[in-house]
Every structure is written in structure tokens, then in C-alpha cells.
Amino acid sequence: MTLTTEADVPQRSDNRSEDEGERSARASTAPSKTTESQDTWTELFATIASTAAQREDEGRLPHDEVRALLARGFGALHVPREFGGAGLSYRELFALVVRLGAADANIAHIFRNHYAFVNGLLTLGDRDQAAHWLTRAGQGDLFAQGVTDAVRPVNADGSVADLSRFSTTLREDEKGHYLEGQKQYATGSVYADWIAVQATTEDGAQTFSAVVSTQDTGVKVIDDWAGFGQRFTGSGTVILDHARLDTKLQLLRRDRLRPGTEYSSSLPQLFLTAVIAGIVQASFNDALQLIKTRKQHLYFAPSSTPTEDPLLLQTLGQLAANAFAARSVILHAAEALDAAAALPVVQRSAANQAAALAAAQAKVVIDALGTTSATLLFDTAGASATHRGKQLDRHWRNARTIASHNPSSYKGLAIGAHLARGEPLPKQGFF
Fold first, then answer.
1. Mean pLDDT of the region 219-228
2. 408 and 281 in one domain?
3. What is the pLDDT of residues 189-198, one digit of tens each?
4. What's the number of CA atoms in the CB half-sphere (13 Å) around residue 279?
5. Is residue 351 part of a domain?
6. Fewest Cβ atoms nearer than 10 Å: which of 42, 112, 177, 227?
7. Which pTM was predicted?
8. In a domain, 430, yes or no
9. CA-to-CA distance for 313 and 309, rounded, in angstroms?
10. Number of alpha helices (DSSP H) and beta strands (DSSP E) in the chain
């Protein structure tokens, strides 16, 4: 089976709305004609899943698979229809993220920063800038983000400075603005058309998100991510050496204090957790396949065939329950994002915190399900399942790697302090 690359993105409308940003944000979550149809995505996801182990074994980056998804509109799912997107709700989006995560956790992860950027555009104060980049996303462009500095600014006492400050610098000369600095953990940058770089002005007074082309001569993307899991997410280094900004559309003002935009990291955090939910589903899928196709069985087993062995069936049932629970939790948390998005921006503060709490609680539960299910998978098979060619260990490695983003122990601490003392959840980082 070959990858389809025929464009299936909804046609862009020439009749753009000129209303306030709140209308665009609400439009993205309105009931849509495009739904989580099995017929729409099943074949492409199945094709991606069928080659995932081989790509992992060979160390091959999924460039073709990412482009096939973009051609079908996977990067435009939550983009409002007026900008060429499908206008799906968060619940519909995350249902598909879980399914893609089950097919290939690396590829699903690549789209995480893309949707974080798209989500920020929906409440951006400059509507011309938002419309420009949303249209780009609607037409199939892929965005990555460069947030974490390779060298972080520190306070006088040696502690890491506030997350609103960056050592990556926005400078200006007679030709205009340009960027200098180095980012790490720039997930998706290897595959992206654009990178939204977080930078601070030379005087440290203002912070911007500067969108640069990956084809710019001043932008160098290095695929040097060396983690044992999520090896093909392109989470490497971006070097910015006089990376030029040609138009004002590329310089987006970041306003962390604007009422109703708190907890902007809830979506990217839940996105990571949704990828783990996909890994839980993949662990069940592979276990079911192993039990159905296994030709040899232990001589002391309670049954002569794997499909009749009560121990294997119990393990399979547990894996199925884990997958059901993980997916259900993700969808419930996504509904909290939808509830916030349905309100005018200035009225979202309380709803945003509720969505952040839902995403945090989802992470604590699903992180545990991810590594547990990836281990239970091996209880349904013999030693042959550990063959490197099968790459079944990738599920544990991938789940453990994703879960290491903002450890669950700190999430649990923040949740407990909020519930017991009414302490607000942190507004920076992954909340």
C-alpha cells in the first residue's frame, strides 16, 4: 500500500470575517460537517501504522508520512473554516490525535507544536497577522516552535529566569529585524515550513514570537535529539544567525497578561498526553495481534492455544480497558478546552483554569497507563516478541519519554495544592 498525497483540505473561502478574535475562536469549535469519520482517516492511519516498526528499526524519518497527512488536512483540523480549515472542536481534534498516536507516536507528536501555534493565533490581538498564518495552516503549511533556549537566562542567584524572558534576541538594524540565538527541543522543526521562535528584545523589555521560514539562510535546523524514545520527532536544535524577518506579519506580540489567555499551555500538554493514550491503544493492538497469530505456546499453559488461555485473555482485557480509559479521559479533558473556547476571550479565565486542571489530572493518570500497558504487552507473548525487528519496546520507550515532559509528581503536587488550599495552578510551563 502506498501513501496517498492527494490534497483533501477544505477549500479556502475568500469571504473572511472581520469580527473580533473571539468570533474566530468560537468558530473553530462550532459543530462541523467534518467529523471523526472512520472512512476519512482509517486507511491512511493504517498505512502509517504498517510501516512504523520498520521505520523505527531503520532509523528513517517519516517525511513522506507527515506530508501525506498535511495534504489530507491533518494540520488544518482545528483551523476555522473561513481560513480553509475543517473547523473541528477540540474533542474532535484530540480523538484523531489519539488515533494517529496509536499508528505512530512520533508522527502524532510532530503536530503538537503546530497546534500550539494555531491555538495561540485564535486569540491573537492582531487579526491580520492571525488571518495570514491561519490561512497558511489551512493551506497545508506545518509550524514548529522554538521556545526553550539552549542557553537560558539566569537570575543573580543562579536560578533560571522567568519563562517570559529568553536569551534568543530580537535585534534591529537599518535593514529591519533579525534573530540571534539557539533553541533546543524544537519539536517538529525538521519537517516544518515555519518555526515560531520566542525571543526578547535587546533591552529585555518585550517578548515576541517571530515566525521564520526553515528555508531562510539564517535558520539552521539540526536533528540532534538523542533521547531513547520519540526518536523521530525532530526535537533538535535550531540555530538562528541573522535570521531575517521580512514583514511585520512575522513578528507576533506575546501578551501573557491579557485576561482570558491564561494557561495557554494546556493544549500542548494535553496533546502530549493524547499521544500517550495512542500508545496505550497501540499496546493493545499489538497484544491482540500477537495472541491471534502466535503459533507456539508454553507447554505448561492452562490452555493449548493462546486465544483460549485465560491468563492471556485477562491481560488482553486489561489492555483493552486501559485503552478505553485513556481515550475517554482525553476526550473529557478536551471538552473542558471546548467549554473555555465557547466563551468570549475576556470571560475565559475560570474556564481556562478548569481546562488546565483537567489536562493536569489526565496526565497523571495516562502517564501511568502508558508505561503499564507497554509492559503488559510482553505478558501476552514469548521471547520472540523481543526481536529488534518487531520494535515492540518502542511503546515503552516512547511513553516514558513523553511522560518525562513536566513530571507527573509535580503535576500531582500542583493539583493537590489547588484542591486543598485553593492555590492557583502555575500559569507558565505546561499548565
1. 96
2. yes
3. 999 999 999 9
4. 36
5. yes
6. 42
7. 0.89
8. no
9. 6
10. 12, 8
What percent of the chain clears pLDDT 90, i.e. is strictly above it?
75
Q: Which three cell numbers stand for residue 376?
A: 503488559
Q: Tell me how crowded residue 43 is: count the other CB atoms within 10 A of its CB.
A: 12
At residue 256, the pLDDT reads: 66
Q: What is the DSSP string of 78-89?
A: TS-GGGTS----
Question: In this predicted model, what pLDDT tens digit does every residue of 127-161 receive, in sequence order?
Answer: 999 999 999 999 999 999 999 998 876 777 777 66
Q: Is the dihedral of CA 110, 373, 60, 63 positive or negative?
A: negative
* E strand residue ranges, 38-122: none
Strands (E), 159-284: 169-173, 176-186, 194-201, 207-213, 219-222, 236-244, 251-253
Grid cell 517519516 — which residue?
62
Which of 253, 274, 290 finishes a domain?
A: 253
**352 lies in some domain:** yes
CA distance 134 to 10: 13
Range of the domain at 282: 266-421
Burial class (CB in 10 A: 0-12, 13-18, 19+), 388: exposed
| Bigger pLDDT: 206 vs 366 | 366
Q: Is-contact 290 380, C-beta < 8 A?
A: yes
Which residues 6+ apart lie within 8 Å of 410 measured at CB? Answer: none
Residues 343 and 240 grouped into a single domain? no
User: What's the chain's length in residues?
Assistant: 431
Give the Cα separation of 402 and 393 in Å (integer).
15
Q: Dihedral sign for Cα 98, 103, 104, 110, please.
A: negative
The full DSSP string for 320-337 is HHHHHHHHHHHHHHHHHH
Cα–Cα separations (whole angstroms), residue 153 to 104, 143, 159, 180, 278: 35, 25, 9, 14, 36
Burial of 174 (0-12, 13-18, 19+ CB in 10 A): exposed
Query: Which residue from 239, 165, 162 is spatially nearest to 203, judged by alpha carbons?
Result: 165
Q: How many domains does the chain have?
A: 3
For residue 73, tell me if it sits in a domain.
yes
Is the distance from CB of 60 to CB of 309 less than 8 angstroms? Answer: no
Residues 214-230, mean pLDDT to the nearest whole number:
96
412 and 298 within one domain: yes
Q: Which three cell numbers stand for residue 419?
A: 484542591
Q: Spell out the residues 6+ positions from residue 157 whose beta carbon is closer than 8 angstroms to its own.
A: none
Task: Give me the phi and psi of 25, to 5 degrees please.
Answer: -65, -45
Under a CB-based contact definition with an 8 Å cutoff, are residues 101 and 41 in contact?
no
Distance in angstroms (rounded) separating the CA atoms of residues 241 and 139: 29
Residue 409 phi/psi, 5-degree rounding, is -60, -40
